């Protein structure tokens, strides 16, 4: 199955085609009132941890180290993706952030993790829960 997960700056106007609009930043965007954002949810648990975010913004770690550690955080807490996966299964999911350059933020890593988790879950649904019974006696019951 194909999922539609897109990024948008929180400062851009809401659009009817956005689908579920979920703010995934840990910090509330400056100067924005909740009513003006048309949010479906504000979900902080899938964003980078405060410590990782701080290290990155203070220049203590590189982009590559940040990406590796963030992927590790997502891998170690797969349940943090479940609410976002539910939204993605219902249609378009728009991940909102205050980041200036969305493609150079943590959002592509988050989308990648979401798509992988959705794919893994879908693959598990396609497998039979138990092997089929080919025994003639089994089929008669």
Taken together, the total number of domains comes to 1
Question: How much helical structure, as a percent, in the residues?
Answer: 25-40%
* DSSP helical segment count: 5
Q: What class would the helix/strand composition place it in?
A: alpha/beta
How would you sum up this structure in a few lines?
The protein is an alpha/beta fold and 141 residues long.
Topology:
Layout: E1 5-9, E2 20-23, E3 41-42, H1 50-57, H2 63-76, H3 82-89, E4 93-97, H4 107-126, H5 136-140
Parallel strand pairs: 1-4, 2-3, 2-4
How does this structure look, described?
By secondary structure, the chain is an alpha/beta fold. The protein has one domain (5-140). The chain has five helices and four strands; from the N terminus they run βββαααβαα. The chain has helices at residues 50-57, 63-76, 82-89, 107-126, 136-140, and strands spanning 5-9, 20-23, 41-42, 93-97. The protein has a four-stranded parallel sheet. α1 (50-57) runs antiparallel to α2. The longest helix has 20 residues, at 107-126.
């Amino acid at each position: 199955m194909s999922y539609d997960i897109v990024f948008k700056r929180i400062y851009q106007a809401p659009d009817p085609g956005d689908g579920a609009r979920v703010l995934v930043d840990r910090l509330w965007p400056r100067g924005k009132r909740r009513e003006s954002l048309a949010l479906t949810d504000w979900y902080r648990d899938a964003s980078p941890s405060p410590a990782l975010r701080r290290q990155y913004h203070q220049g203590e770690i590189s982009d590559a180290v940040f990406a590796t550690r963030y992927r590790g955080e997502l891998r170690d807490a797969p349940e943090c993706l479940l609410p976002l996966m539910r939204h993605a299964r219902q249609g378009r999911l728009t991940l909102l952030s205050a980041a200036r350059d969305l493609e150079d933020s943590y959002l592509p890593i988050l989308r990648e993790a979401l798509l992988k988790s959705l794919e893994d879950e879908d693959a598990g649904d396609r497998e039979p829960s138990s092997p089929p019974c080919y025994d003639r006696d089994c089929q008669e019951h």
